[in-house]
Amino acid sequence: MAARSIWKGSVGFGLVNVPCKLYSATDEKGIHFNQLHKGCKARINLVKRCSACGEEVSEKLGNLIKGFEVNKGEYVLMEEADFLNVPVKTLKGVEILAFVDAGKVDPRHFEKSYFLAPEDKLGTKAFSLLLQAMEKVGKVGIVKLTYREREHLAMIRPFGKVLLLQTLFYTDELRPSSEVEVALPQVSDKELAMGIMLLRTLEVGDIDLSQYKDGYEEALRAVIQAKLEGKTIQSVPEEQKPATDDLIAALMASLNQKPAGVA
């Protein structure tokens, strides 16, 4: 199925205007289940009803509206046109705020990934200029854009023949690590050296993430198929790994069982 854009606007690059469309860069995989009535095995209908009069409400019925609560039970009602007329520049345009080294951005900020591609042939030259200029200087762009009723902070970077746009959490949405930090004991030089040796046994030059699959999903599909065929599957006994205070012994045992042929 062809990719469908979720936003259309333009990227402002100085006085250069780049018409673009935004596409989702990921597809969430997994097994999805329906909720059923345990008695008759029929699907459950989730119906929205008014808490006051009990009337069914939905967008399809045309009797659903959004409201912002200003006082208990008192709302400012918002029509769809209100959201489309919010006075921000980023409603139909990507505003480039700065260019920066990617490594300077706190990794906690990253949220979701999207592709930003030219809207039509007329914008391909300007898009190509922006893409190649960013590749040449090795910088990423910090931008803002508005969609789905929110102004998003994001990062854009060259990704093949498109731009990868990654939305970012705002700083006030980040939780400090101090909330979960504990006092860490010192490790000896010998323990550190052996730990580094163990790390090196798993080191690779290039990583191919396509080799990793969702083992739980595959096993769950096997369980579903077995139930369909009236079979049972034996659960895998949980491997108990006792904690140890003797790091040297644990490190030595780990190094001794490393895969053959690994330096």
How much helix is in the residues? 10-25%
Q: What separation lies between the terminal Cα atoms?
A: 46 Å
The chain-level mean pLDDT equals 83
Oligomer kind:
single chain
Spans with pLDDT under 50 lasting ≥5 residues?
none
- Beta-strand portion reads 25-35%
> Looking across the biggest beta sheet, what order are the strands in?
1-2-6-9-8-7-5
Number of H/I helices: 5
Radius of gyration: 27 Å
Main sheet makeup? 7 strands, mixed, barrel
Number of DSSP strand runs: 9
Structural class: alpha+beta
Can you put this structure into words, describing what you see?
With 263 residues, this protein is of the alpha+beta class. It has 5 helices and 9 strands; from the N terminus they run ββββαββαβββααα. A hairpin with a 2-residue loop joins strand 1 and strand 2 (16-24).
SSE layout and pairings?
Blueprint: E1 7-13, E2 16-24, E3 66-71, E4 74-78, H1 80-84, E5 93-100, E6 110-118, H2 124-137, E7 140-147, E8 150-159, E9 162-168, H3 189-201, H4 215-228, H5 247-256
Parallel strand pairs: 1-5
Antiparallel strand pairs: 1-2, 2-6, 3-4, 5-7, 6-9, 7-8, 8-9
Helix pairs in contact: 3-5
Briefly summarize what is shown.
The protein is an alpha+beta fold and 263 residues long. It has five helices and nine strands.
Task: Give structural attributes.
9 strands; two-stranded antiparallel ribbon; 7-stranded mixed barrel; alpha+beta; single chain; 263 residues; 5 helices
